[in-house]
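Regression test case RT-17, inverse folding.

Input:
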């Protein structure tokens, strides 16, 4: 039998890490069919099944768990050793995988990413936009960007961008038909554009004034799961939208949108870059965090 080489185990490790053939194939640069063929060939040579597969899931067998327990740490040591070499280079290199919500991508990541990549030409950034929270470790991401209030307790978080503030807006045409609300409870009688999270939970609009905090469950003709689409709907005079002040600043300036309840709209701490605690941080992630901590990129608010 031909001796095994470390590369023979890469398909196994990728599937074990991601728990999904498509994501594992993407991580390795394989097609799903090529990955499946490589894994099948490995199992045939070992004369052992390493995974139990169904049409919906893939899980390690007992033999697969034992193999992963032995070779997984060894491959992690190799990755760490290479990253240590990367850390002492004059110019860090490698891939930086970031998972972001659409709002955080538009408002904080993309305005910073160009400067970072110009500063670090040997780093390749891969950005995945997903409004749902994902398991960063199993999905193979280095970091994510979300509001601080939704982060898991075991994550390390670094502020990114400025403070954010909410804004309730609609078009002038909308207010030709409907009265402008002067208090949050008046929203219950007006057409509002709802937001539903990926979990299925509807978002209750949040307000604060003079030490009073309110959450208002709104109703209206349209419910969406994307804030950019909510803004588009508001611009189409479908209803009132609860957005970020930064998102609508240009539309308020040119008169396409009108703001209401401004004195009830609170500030939020803003977005955070977050990542799991680990013994050694990838050099590309360390370079990005160092870039964010430069005075020019810190919150002045």
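Golden output:
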């Amino acid at each position: 039998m031909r001796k095994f080489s470390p590369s023979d185990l890469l398909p196994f490790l990728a599937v074990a890490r991601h728990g999904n053939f498509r994501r594992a194939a993407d991580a390795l640069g394989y097609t799903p069919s090529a990955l499946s063929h490589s894994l099948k060939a490995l199992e045939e040579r070992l004369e052992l099944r390493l995974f139990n597969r169904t049409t919906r899931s893939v899980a390690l067998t007992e033999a697969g768990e034992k193999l992963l327990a032995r070779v997984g740490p060894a491959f992690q040591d190799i990755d760490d050793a290479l990253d240590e070499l990367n850390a002492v280079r004059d110019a860090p290199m490698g891939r930086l995988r970031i998972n972001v919500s659409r709002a955080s991508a538009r408002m904080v990541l993309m305005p910073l990413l160009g400067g970072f990549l110009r500063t670090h030409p040997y780093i390749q950034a891969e950005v995945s936009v997903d409004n749902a929270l994902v398991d960063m470790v199993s999905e193979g991401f280095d970091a994510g960007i979300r509001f601080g209030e939704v982060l898991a307790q075991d994550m390390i978080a670094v502020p990114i961008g400025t403070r954010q503030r909410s804004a309730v807006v609609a078009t002038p045409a909308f207010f030709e038909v409907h009265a402008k609300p002067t208090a949050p409870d008046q929203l219950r009688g007006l057409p509002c554009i709802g937001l539903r999270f990926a979990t299925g939970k509807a978002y209750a609009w949040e307000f604060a004034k003079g030490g009073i905090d309110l959450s208002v469950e709104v109703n209206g003709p349209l419910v969406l799961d994307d804030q950019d689409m909510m803004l588009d709907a508001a611009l189409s005079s479908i209803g009132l939208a609860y957005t970020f002040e930064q998102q609508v600043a240009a539309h308020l300036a040119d008169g396409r949108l009108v703001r209401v309840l401004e004195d009830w709209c609170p500030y939020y701490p803003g977005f955070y870059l977050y990542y799991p605690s680990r013994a050694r941080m990838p050099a590309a992630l360390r370079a990005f965090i160092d870039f964010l901590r430069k005075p020019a990129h810190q919150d002045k608010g």
